[in-house]
Amino acid sequence: MTLDEAAVERLVGDAQAGDPRAFGRLFDHYHASVYRYIVSRVHRPSDAEDLTQLVFVKALEALPRYEARGIPFGGWLFRLARNAVIDHVRTHRDHVGLESASERPGGDAGPDEIVAVRQAFDEVAAALEALTDEQREVIALRFFAGLSAREAADVMGKQEGTVRGLQFRAIAAMRRSLGIEDPDTTVVERRLRPTGEKPIGPSGIG
Amino acid sequence: MDEDFVERRPGDLEMYRRLDAYAETRLAPNAAAMARIRAALMGQAVAMADAGAATLALPLQPATTLPQRPSMTLRRPDVSRWSAAFLAACLCLGLVAGSVAASTAGGPFYGPRLWLEEATLPSAPLPHAHGQLDRLDARLEEIRVATTNANAGAVEAALLAYAEIVDDRPNELIAWRSLPGSQVDHAGVVHFERAPGGRGTQVTVELDYTPPGGMVGATLAKVLGTIPMREVQEDLRRFKQWMETGDIVLSEGVVRGVARRAVGDARRPAPASPRRPSPRGRRPAPGRRRGGARRPEDPTR
């Protein structure tokens, strides 16, 4: 379900006026991204479902007091989600790896393909685990929840440039973990390196 | 998100693709669970909408029948709230003032007040005695005030209370306290307790005093050997002898191995033969005699 910002604001206004169907459409629009963000943070699908419901219940109760004030409804909703995740992590110290998240591969995939996909996702999960907490949150908000850099910055209470820097470093770290080479970096280093000097690091090999 | 990806290097695209695939595969919500959550939310939203509609409908009915007096409806709760607070404060103040007046000597609350004072005294002997002394002072002050006001009933009540405190524990303790303006501010308690096994009476003296001159005065008294506690110990020893023998034996007392100058030197009986007293009144240690002269035996030892 795709809605532009104006349509979302209209739905929010209708929901504030007491239209339950408008709130239902808002749920349809945001529930998948909210769930993906939450499950990437708490790792356990059952907890993520409970927290998703909690976030929308809080949103429903607080909707009459919501005012845009420069923060769009999506950013406000993900702030609620982030606070719910923080509260959950504080009270539930048991850690569950990202590998335990539910996996639903395509129905026509063969056993070998399923194993290969599962291994690839395990590697991504391990690379995510190696990130710092802020980097992991930026990845969750930008890639799993689908927020823009500005929206992610609003949710995290940081500057937009800070969020972009965190994302850059997180992607670079994951790329190193997964062994994905960057051909552009190799080219740049070849240009700058003086003649006869050996390359340094794995990106400069070759 | 797409507008931010334009500035990325081509090497990042593979990373983005893997993250998107990871999100779509491993982080996808369960459709059944989401449908269940949606149904619950919609039920709550409908209930809230109904409650909101009912709330909105309520003020519309009186608005058509009653005249609008916003200023009165806003001010009336404030006035009643302040009036109630003022009345409550006056009531509390009157109760306190009445209780204080009734608890003076001769008043209806004087008895409960004395009982409360007695019940709140500390249990330790010395603080208890000090508390009783304070109560005696308070009774004396009440007697003075009542006498000044020519209130015979108050004088009688305060005197009865005073006598009750004085006779509070006969044969157990005697307490005193210096009057205000005395040279040395002090207070003391003498406890009389039956010794174990019926072997007599154990007398304990507790003395609290403020030496004149503060720390300097206390140090000076210590240097000059006029420490009140030593004097008290000496007095106790003499009191014991007087009670047991009917007479006070005048001799030097040695307390805790320290030779002390006797208080009653003037009444010391003359020795059998004139002798030169040891310096500072000290008795030579056993086996260490001066000048080879044998010290005459003290008949009292």
Give the end-to-end Cα distance of chain A, rounded to a whole number of Å: 47 Å
Outline of chain B: elongated
Assembly type:
heterodimer
| Uncertain ranges of chain B | 1-7, 58-75, 254-301
What is the radius of gyration of chain B?
44 Å
Mean pLDDT of chain B: 70
Secondary structure: helix percent of chain B: 40-55%
| Structural class assignment of chain A | mainly alpha
Tell the overall outline of chain A. Answer: globular
Number of helices of chain A: 9
Helix content of chain A: 55-70%
The chain-level mean pLDDT of chain A equals 79
> How many helical elements of chain B?
10
Q: What letter string, H or E per element, gives the SSE order of chain A?
A: HHHHHHHHH
pLDDT < 50 runs, ≥5 residues of chain A: 186-206
Describe this structure in words.
- The complex is a heterodimer of chains A (206) and B (301).
- Chain A is mostly helical and 206 residues long.
- Chain A is 68% helix and 0% strand.
- In chain A, helix 1 crosses helix 2 and helix 5 packs across helix 8.
- By secondary structure, chain B is mostly helical.
- Chain B contains 10 helices and 5 strands; from the N terminus they run H-H-H-H-H-H-H-H-E-E-E-H-H-E-E.
- In chain B, helix 7 packs antiparallel against helix 8.
- At the A-B interface, helix 2, helix 3, helix 5, helix 6 and helix 8 of A face helix 2 and helix 3 of B.
